[in-house]
Amino acid sequence: MDEKDNYQLQINDIHLSFGGIKALHGVSTGVKKGEIFSIIGPNGAGKTCLLNCINRFYQPDQGHIIFENQDITHLKPHRIAALGIARTFQNVELFGHMNVLDNIKLGAHVHLKSGSISGGIYYGKTRAEEMALRKEIEERIVDLLEIEPIRKHVVHSLPYGLQKRVEMARALAMRPKVLLLDEPATGMNLEETEDIARFILDINEEWGITIILIEHDMGVVMDISNRICVLDFGIKIAEGKPAEIRHNEKVIKAYLGEEDITYSRLGA
């Protein structure tokens, strides 16, 4: 059996440019169902650009993205979300004037069946659908991410670390098969980072959700990843298990500038 047959998500020869700037140069990789797959690389390596191609914030110049044997390269972002690909962002993208629960519920809009008229009346099936959604969020997502005490707080009043957790909760409300996490631990202290790593493992192991992770904390990456893809200036320079990546000379050179320097930044 071809290795590609095991991939839930395939990225085939993706090119992306902005004017004369080439952001991605023929990147090809694949993510297996149920794994935590990390994408790392120095600043400007093209990591977020690759996520943006997967969920179609960007249209690749060339190449194909295949999700569960369906070519999604040219689908609209909302169609990709409906298929089961959700994400969080490098910078928090929440509705600051709304409370936590309302922000989370917005993530489930792709699954709601009620129309605008029945939604305005808020009766019968519409109300039942809303209550079922609220129960799912409060009993599963809020509990998993330990945000019960803040569920009615207005988002802009929360510290940054909790806002990142709420954004992850909103993505989970989409009932994803694949969750794209763009630097979920950025700006957090050690305790918050450890909590985020634990939540990612719980989402993956207890819910069976495939995780594609971008993260600069190499300790987190090396501890929780099944496999790692390394980008440098938009080119894939390595891919493999954490132990292989930790000792890869190309990776060490990309991060530290020379091959014989100590590589503690790679989680050694």
The strands making up the biggest β-sheet line up spatially as 6-7-8-3-9-10
Strand segment tally:
10
The oligomeric state is single chain
CATH architecture of the largest domain: 3-Layer(aba) Sandwich
Describe the structure.
With 268 residues, the protein is α/β, with parallel strands linked by helices. The protein has 2 domains: 1-84 and 176-268, 3-Layer(aba) Sandwich (Rossmann fold), CATH 3.40.50.300; 93-175, no CATH class. The protein contains 10 helices and 10 strands. A 6-stranded mixed β-sheet has the order 6-7-8-3-9-10, with helices on both faces. A 4-stranded antiparallel β-sheet has the order 2-1-4-5, covered by helices on one side.
Describe the structure concisely.
The protein is an alpha/beta fold.
SSE diagram, text form:
Elements: E1 7-18, E2 21-32, E3 36-40, H1 47-54, E4 62-67, E5 70-71, H2 77-83, E6 85-87, H3 100-106, H4 116-121, H5 125-144, H6 160-172, E7 178-182, H7 190-207, E8 210-214, H8 218-224, E9 227-232, E10 235-240, H9 242-246, H10 249-256
Parallel strand pairs: 3-8, 3-9, 6-7, 7-8
Antiparallel strand pairs: 1-2, 1-4, 4-5, 9-10
Helix pairs in contact: 3-6
